[in-house]
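Q: Predict the bound structure with 2-acetamido-2-deoxy-beta-D-glucopyranose.
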Amino acid sequence: MPKILSFLLCLSFTITSFVICIDEKEKVLKISTDAATPTGSDFTYICDPVRYAKLKLDIKSFAFCDSKLPYNVRAKDLVDQMTLAEKIAQLGNNADGVARLGLPKYEWWSEALHGLSNVGPGTVFDNLVPHATSFPTVILTAASFNEKLWREIGQVVSTEARAMYNLGRSGLTFWSPTINVARDPRWGRITETPGEDPFIVGTYASNYVRGLQDVAGTEHYKDLNTRPLKVAACCKHFAAYDVDNWHGVDRYHFDARVTEQDLEESFLRPFEMCVKDGDASSVMCSYNRVNGIPSCADPKLLRETLRQEWNLHGYIVADCDSVEVMVTGHKFLNDSNEDAVAQTLKAGLDLDCGAYYPKYLGNAVNQGKVRESNIDEALQNLYIVLLRAGYFDGLPAYKALGKNDICTNRSIELATQVAREGITLLKNDGPTLPLNTATFKTLAVVGPHANSTVAMIGNYAFDPRNPGSPCRYTSPIDGFSTYGKVNYAAGCGDVKCKDASLIPPAVEAAKTADATIIVTGLDLSIEAEGLDRLDLLLPGKQTDLINQVAAAAKGPVILVLMTAGGVDISFAKTNPKIKAILWVGYPGAEGGRAIADVVFGQYNPAGRLPITWYQADYINKLPLTSMQFRPDDSQGYPGRTYKFFNGPTVFPFGFGLSYTKFNYTLNATVPSLSAKLQRFTHCHDLNYMANKTKPTCPAILVSDLQCGEYIELTLVVQNVGGKVGSEVVLVYSKPPDGITGTFLKQLIGFQRVYIAAGASQEVKFVFNGCKSLGIVDNAGNNILPFGGHTIIVGDGVASFPVQVTFHN
Ligand SMILES: *[C@@H]1O[C@H](CO)[C@@H](O)[C@H](O)[C@H]1NC(C)=O
Ligand SMILES: *[C@@H]1O[C@H](CO)[C@@H](O)[C@H](O)[C@H]1NC(C)=O
Ligand SMILES: *[C@@H]1O[C@H](CO)[C@@H](O)[C@H](O)[C@H]1NC(C)=O
Ligand SMILES: *[C@@H]1O[C@H](CO)[C@@H](O)[C@H](O)[C@H]1NC(C)=O
Ligand SMILES: *[C@@H]1O[C@H](CO)[C@@H](O)[C@H](O)[C@H]1NC(C)=O
Ligand SMILES: *[C@@H]1O[C@H](CO)[C@@H](O)[C@H](O)[C@H]1NC(C)=O
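A: Predicted complex:
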């Protein structure tokens, strides 16, 4: 499949084939000089009377420019003024515009996964604005377990975005964040995600989206059709997408076979939170099929679930060339091109990232396969989002933003702080860390990531073929240079570390240094979009490098791992010469500074792993392509994520050490919850193990409950060590014993608290009974089980029972 093959090459950065990428880039460059489009600082907004006068058009004849009319009326007026051909020309990511209506071209595709990016052609860097702030990749940001921080990052990114828009260098629609659960350690895109737990992923999603979208003071608007948007975010990829390319199975052909239970409980939950809690203005459907049907062609997923059940206010976009992939990859129903566009439009897909809608929708209408009214509906969904984002009228709050609001000291500091907060301490014998500058004056900083720059910003950052880069870089050797005299040796040519020839200089450096820091791990050549991992080991000779350096080192050895997915580093965990291990994700442009600050105790680490680190043999036990979370005894599959996997790990989900110690005291709990039943509520059956007595009323459907009951939990957390620091408090629930096929425990709440040495702080949680004690049964029902539930704090530091009963 040469087409798909070339497409793949490019997709890891941009669109369809390599040739089209170049085209896209040229088109974008043209946009910034084209008089009919947003250009430079003179562009304010579409319905600017001066602009219409310049275009020699009478603005009065365009009701869509009348700001006194409701958005839906204006959007309808705009669409109704277009011919069928004009309408269709607006339905690809690179929308044509309609010159006679004063509507310029618009590029819908911009990206802002962890900072502004030029991976989408809608955002362009050049001499005027060459840089933007690059935050750590999302997996490290997730490890901070800090909701407030997640929202703050979104706010800084959207401020830079709005500034770029004012300068004619960006659109207002960003296809971020990525909120697929990291179901398997081999998946290449873990770096983009907030980890393996659906509740964390959904919480991250709603916070980041609100950071990008919310205009201060309008967070609680009742009418979601008019709520202003700072910029429009997009939750992707919907749904059950997490195989990229593994042993010849790629996403353009993959059919994810998922149970309704897993769909409801794990795959859909983050998207539900993103739409309902985050009020995201867009969702992107994915390349794969779900139980036989391409997700972009599934009316159940798009029209029913997203629009009707979750009440999406916004537009649905296809992952780039998904509609084409339906025809050429999946060969779905032996569709013609016209069948495919008709099906996806009818299923609820509003916008095609690609050319299929503009190319084939005209014929599809002529052949009677789809109605023009479906096209009108899609366009209205799209224009209402642009109206909300001020594309037509401007948004005064952001009018003044410009070049000086990009790469500010504050945003660079925030990016550094995010890295510090995410960095996770996995081992600290002695304790050896933090190092002090008085004793540790000479530092050997070795390994393929010791002078890392580009690798620290991961993917969805800056496409190397286009202008644009972070505000600046601080590599690990730069960071450590501020604490001591650095002796650097790469040890390997790159992370693949094919040969051992560069190891001896690294060994020599370690022999004389007061302390040795080995910075190793993976990069986009090992785990990336379009590239799943085949094993869980450090690549090539990296293990030899670490062992040889550790054996020769004069001083303590600190291993720093730059990875997204977990690696089996059991050898280093048990090696007594390796005193400390830090996981640093891909820590962003300022990563080196954050790492050095943690090693030298300027910052006390408190990150926790957002994914399970499995042992290397995990991959032999189940294929990446099996989608289920639960163990499958018939196949010998062990189950996935902390919720279902009960076997040995290298490090468990939620693990992370500190330079201080915290002590928990349970202050107040509510030991029972009695849910009120309505007159016509009936008991729901639930499967129990044969050796357990099933309660007479095993459960109630959540949809039959008012869900107005809450349980409160108050903990007192004391910092009983000698150093100020933060603690991440994790709280789980566990359903009554004996229910078959349910999880071991599920995360229901978390808070990150900062506590001075010796001080204590009260930490209060309020849990909704249905949300926090509910489970999904094997028929896909959300139910609240009767009986003895358990609340578990942290790694079992405290646990207590909550009895659930029902009353009339
Ligand atoms: C698929 O469609 C093509 C073109 O319409 C047709 O020639 C072919 O017979 C179809 N194949 C199947 C299996 O229906
Ligand atoms: C930004 O920080 C640099 C040094 O880190 C300093 O020289 C400069 O004055 C700061 N700028 C502002 C606007 O605070
Ligand atoms: C570190 O890498 C940069 C390029 O990213 C290079 O310019 C610099 O010379 C390298 N530093 C050392 C000490 O090799
Ligand atoms: C931690 O709390 C427990 C229970 O309140 C108490 O018995 C113990 O002494 C405390 N430990 C420290 C180090 O303060
Ligand atoms: C424990 O809770 C009670 C009230 O429920 C409160 O008065 C007390 O201050 C709390 N204890 C601590 C140490 O915060
Ligand atoms: C009950 O049965 C399950 C398997 O169905 C088994 O794992 C468990 O150990 C049994 N418990 C008792 C108390 O026998």
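A: Residues 667-668, 716, 762 surround 2-acetamido-2-deoxy-beta-D-glucopyranose (ligand 5) (CB under 6 Å).
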